[in-house]
Structures are given as C-alpha cells and as structure tokens.
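name: query_chain
kind: protein
chains: 1
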Amino acid sequence: MNERELAEKLKAGQQAAFGLLYQTYARQLLVVITRYVVEREKSKDLLHDCFIKIFDKISQFQYQGKGSLEAWLRRVCINECLMFLRKEKRFETVSIDDREDLQLQILEAEEPTEEEVERIPTEELGKMIQALPVGYRTVLTLFLVEGKSHKEIASMLGINEKSSSSQLARAKRQLAKAIKNWHKEIY
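structure:
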C-alpha cells in the first residue's frame, strides 16, 4: 500500500490502517524523538503521545505527494518533543551578557578536521551529540538535521534568534572538544 492509500484509509478511520502506520513508521519516529529526548523511557512515552496526536489530527493531513505523510509525521513528533522540553523547562539559554564570553570561547575552540570527524564511528558521534545539554542538542538538531533557520528555531522554541545562534555555536564548540578528546584517547 502506498502513502496516499494509507492516508486515505487513515482518514476513513480504518483500524488496520492505524496498525500499519504504527508498524511502518514507529521505529523511524522514535529515532527522531531520541534526537531531542535522550532518556529511553521518556522517548518511548513521547512516541506513544505522538501517535495519539497523529491519530487525533490525521483528518488535518493533506497529501501533497510522495514523502508528505512521513514529513507530516516527523513534524508532529518534533512539535511534541519541543512542547515536552518547554514544559519540562529543559532548555539552557544564553543571556546576551554572555556574548563576549561566547565569542572568546568560539575563537579559542579548535575545530576538528573533516578527516578527524570521518574517523569517528557513527555510533560514537551519536553518543557525543546525545551528551550535549538539551538546549544545545535541540538547536543543533533543528539547524543541521531539520534544516531550520535561526528565525524558525527561535519561533519554535520561544527564544530570540541570537539565543538560537549562541546555542548552536556552543553546541558546535562542545562537540568539537568531544571529538578532539576522543582522538586523544584513541590515538
């Protein structure tokens, strides 16, 4: 069954379609969720909440071509994750007063080379990203993985654009430091 047919059956309320949707997309959506919420049990709970929201809001979905259902599902999950993180008050934000300190830290940070990054196993790099503070990891993921602008991120997280930019810079700096440390330990 293709995406369009599945969407039509979901909108018609066919129970088998909901089971197929879960079976087809649950694993992918859990990966998306764990980019934002690292704790395994909380991410599973969020997946459950996302599917409840998906089932409740499926009538609002508009098929726009191949991949549109998956994109819509991802957006629902990302929005649920961001609401969860806001509710839990997990974001660390950078005050404007920290700007000079941030600029100094960025200048002091030695970025890893492309070769150094490529030598790190994907699983290890994932662990480094997951170890970032929630605010850093969230902005990094929204910017690099989801392709959002600082303006969009600021709107999504309820912060200003400069805070989004600062969060990203700090995330990159902390990630660069972790990569450098990994190479020191291994080589």
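note: The chain has a mean pLDDT of 86.
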